[in-house]
Amino acid sequence: MAEPTPRRNEPRLRPAPLLFEPAQAASDPEHFFDLESIDDPRELLARATELTQAFRAATDRAMEFQAIAAAQLADPRRFDRLTPADIAAQAEWTEDYAKKMVEFGRDLMRGVEGPGHVDPV
Fold first, then answer.
1. Is the pTM of this model over 0.85?
2. How many CB atoms lie within 10 A of CB 67?
3. pLDDT of residue 17
4. Largest CA distance in the chain
5. Measured distance CA(19)–CA(17) in Å, rounded
6. pLDDT value at residue 33
7. Which of 100, 104, 98, 106 is nearest to 117 (CA)?
8. SS3 letters for the chain?
9. Is the distance from CB of 105 to CB of 69 less than 8 angstroms?
10. d(Cα 99, Cα 105) in Å, to the nearest integer?
């Protein structure tokens, strides 16, 4: 299970950088961030763990941006606002999940985060 996303008043951890792989390496299904070339299992575990943490942090951050975008698109002050069903269709979510993401995004934009705050996932 992923760790909770750091809140605005907590410093964000800076996980290992996700380096972009050259197109040639990325096209090789056996190649993954050069992990296959690491022979030492301790080093392999350390680098794979760094990558896992980096991907989790990136996922959490991207989800926050999704929620903020959903809240902005559903803002009733927008003349072109979208319904939760429209947002769900665009993001390939269920309508119920879109509603939760809109609420989560509104909370993020208001800076409301505390013990009663629940992430939508």
1. no
2. 22
3. 58
4. 58
5. 6
6. 81
7. 104
8. CCCCCCCCCCCCCCCCCCCCCCHHHHCCCCCCCCHHHCCCHHHHHHHHHHHHHHHHHHHHHHHHHHHHHHHHHCCCCCCCCCCHHHHHHHHCCCHHHHHHHHHHHHHHHHCCCCCCCCCCC
9. yes
10. 10
**pLDDT tens digits along 21-34:** 555 555 666 778 88
Kindly give the parts of the chain with pLDDT less than 50: 1-4, 6, 115-116
d(CA 81, CA 73): 5
What pLDDT sits at residue 28?
64
Find where tokens 């926050």 sit. 64
The length of the chain in residues reads 121
The two structure tokens encoding residue 84: 């939760």
